[in-house]
Amino acid sequence: MNRVWWLLLTFAFASAAAASLMLPAAGLGALYRSDPDLFATILTEVRLPRMLLALLYGAMLGGSGAAIQALFANPLASPDITGTTGGAALGAVISAYLIGFAGPLGLAAGGVTGAALALLLLLGLAGRQSDSATLLLAGVAISALAGAATALALALAPSPFAFYEAYDWLMGSLVDRSLAQAAMVAVPVLGALLFLAFRAHALDSLALGEAAAEAMGHRVTRLRREVVIATAVGVGMAVAVCGAVGFIGLVAPIFARRLTRAHPGRAILPAALIGAILLCLADVLVRFAPAGRQFPIGVVTALLGAPFFLALVLRMRLEWRA
Amino acid sequence: MTVLTARGLALQGRLAPTNLDLEAGTLTLLVGPNGAGKTSLIHRLAGVGEGSGTTLIGDIPLADMPPAIRARRIALLPASREVAWPLMARDLVALGLGGRADSEAVAETLRSLDAFQFADRRMDRLSTGERARVLLARALVARPDVLLLDEPAAHLDPARQIGMIARLREEVQRGAAVLASIHDLALARSFADRVLVMREGRIVADGAPDSALVPELLRSVFGVAWQPATGWVLA
Fold this sequence. Notes:
The complex is a heterodimer of chains A (322) and B (235). Chain A has 322 residues and is mostly helical.
């Protein structure tokens, strides 16, 4: 990726972050003049955590999506389609309701464990270098299983209030999160992304097939384990705090690979930037919902992402036919 | 001079325990029927996949070599011609440099395989034969001491097969040890310094082409008769 693209992406990233802090702007100026303290509180305690979580979660989805796609040598793999986010959500719900471990750390541990189990199940079901059909089917099966089990756990919710709270969280939400929660997500997400970015060259080599990559000295079995662990930790933590958000992990790497001339590993960092920008903008969009209504952010990314996914499937079908 | 020393290479059900040394500046061609263990031997030599045994390059175990050094010592060309991503041919060849950037070496290697004209085309837009030449260029680009090639002639037309062998002879000239599996016994006979014949996971003949490719042995290994003058004979 050349310097101009890095600059553009960084600029878009900064703009999205600024938009998240400042929009909607109506009334902000007046508030600043009348009550500067309240203005500062709104910025630092309401909008700042929301902005940080959108950027971190989006970056994690984009970066891990790129890594998983490189690992499976398949552009249709992503944390949501492979059932990783679903597994994380299930893990967090089980941790909260069945074990009664609803504190932030309990949710996080549940999310990470659920994500890891879903990824391991996928590796077992779909095999190493899987064709698109096997991967999608295995992902659909895992997502369905996780979805059904989550619904069951919700049905067993101790009270209607708890049910609505959990339902709201499952749809994905960045509202009412604290700076402490943002910090809790930041450490594992940044660590996981950095860890994955250092594997860019090895993941690029996988484009030549496992045998060639191994002959080049890359330990493919270890690489697979590392990608699974990093993705499970980062995505699991983010899901535990913000709920399930779909399609960013699928879409961001596809854009990113256009900037890295199709290199799958090198696309990890650009995909993280693009994912952060996309989720941040989706979160800004959510705020312009008609007054009194809250659109879950997961619904917005799905509404925008699903047509993109369908277009991708259509293009692959046409290419296979040609 | 021996550059590669392999001891006890084995893979359950595919490759019986095998020792093999490869000399610098020799072209070794590996022949045998389907399922004889050629790919298993090549993969074990490269330390790839399952199985046992050790490979030393010089006196350093392959397993101890970091990727950047390994790229200059050994390269494996797997039999598959599939590439998962729509990389440009030029970028794919550059992957063989093990992280180094050297666009001149990439261009030079592509040119030597008559593949430079599609350096800027995507791999998924190339024919199988064109892809085969680009993938071979990837294996050659770092000028490694040892080249292990699984059926480099597959998907190539006769002229390009000869061209490919001539290119391998150039690698041998500069001192590389080249081992390639091949199905064309006439090519093996004309161009190899050393021929290995495999059957049922074992090397059953090893020597100069004239001593390894003898009609009686070939008939027992392949189940059909082969004569240097006429090639395969229905018998």
